[in-house]
What does this fold into?
Amino acid sequence: MDKIIIAIPRGRIIEECKDILMRTSFAPEPSLFDNDSRKLTFSSKDKNIDYIKVRAFDVCTFVAFGAAQIGVAGEDVIREFNYSEIYAPLDLNIGHCRLSVAALKTLLKKEDPETWSNIRIATKYPNISKKFFANKGIQVEVIKLNGSMELAPSLNMCRRIVDLVSTGKTLKVNGLKEVDQIMKVQSKLIINRSAQKTKTDTIQKIVNEIKKIIL
It folds into this structure.
C-alpha cells in the first residue's frame, strides 16, 4: 500500500495542529513540532501514514500536485491558489484570524477609503486582492511581497496593504489602521481529489477521526 502523506504548515499554526494530531491513531513523531528541527519528513504511529512539514503558503501546492494527499491550510491560501485539484471538506476551528485591508493612519486623516479609485497595495495575496477591489470598482496595482508587509508603507512603496490580522498590534506599531475586512480565516483539512478516488476508505477514515476530535 502506498503511504498517505499529510502536509502540515510551519509557523504559528503548528501548535494548534499538535492539539488535534497527537490525539489521533496516526499521531506524528514529536519532532514534527520541534521548531529547531531541520527534518522535513516524519513518521507516525500508523506505518501507512507519514507527514511532511512545509511553508504554510506551499501546503495547497503540495496537495494539488499529489506530493501529499492531505494537508492543513488556511482559507486564505486555499482561495488565493484556487486549485481545482483540491477540496476542503472539514473546518478545523484553529488558526482564526482575518484578511484585511490596512492603510497608513496619516493617509486616512486626509482621505476616506470610500473615495479610492486607483490605488497601489503590497500583499502576498494578489489574486484575492485584485478580485476584492475589482468588485468595489477600484483599480489596483499589486506589489507582491512574501512577508514584512507592514514595512512597505513606511518605506514609501505604497500606502496600503492587504495582510492577515490577528490582534492588530503589528499594524498599530507600524502606523497602520485596518479599514476593511476581506474575509475571515481559519484552517481547513484539504484533500487531493484524485487521491480521494483511489484511496477513499483510508482518507475517509482519517477525516472521520479528526472530525470526532474537533466536534
